[in-house]
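Reply to dn_fold:

You asked what the input looked like. This is it:
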Amino acid sequence: MKGLIGKKIGMTQVFDETGMQVAVTVVELGPCSVVQLKTEENDGYEAAQVSFGTQKEQRLTSPLKGHYKKAKAAPARILKEFFLDEGEELELGQTIDASNFEGVNFVDVTGISKGRGFQGTVKRWNFAGGRASHGGKEALRVPGSIGQCTSPSRVVKGKKMSGHMGSTRITKQNLKVIGIRPEDNAILIKGSIAGPNGGYVEVRKALKKA
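and this is what came back:
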């Protein structure tokens, strides 16, 4: 399978084969249950819908309850769909874990970034702010001029201004896999990924091979 659902555990550090210290993010990858199989004949493409996490059955809608029962899978917290590897065959209810990524050198990781609430232009867009001297002390963090005068007499769309920051879907590509620990359902990924500790992420096999 091209990807799996995981949960960000946190960051730590390990030492590689050369003795260099490497900062890694630990992701609990699976186990994921196959809930639905998409086929070329019925859907026009081949993929598998997998579930991750636990959820109380009374918190599910009736259609979802039937969806899980049909696959003989336990109620789960999150559902995602991934393409299959060439020639791969799966069965409903089958469990897939971190061993699916054995031999993979690079991955793409998608997560939801931390929400920052309503922020000004300095924090949200890294604006420099106003000068602190020569009468500018009252305008240290203001955005400055935002539009024109007579023409077009409005603020153009897309202007970088204050507003909601964070809580967006972010994908980091070609992150190096430092190690896989199937016994812990964990994968060690070099560097940081989007989202808080405990947040759900999607880990996919990257096109980059080496």
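The first strand starts at residue 3 and ends at 15.
Hope that clears it up.
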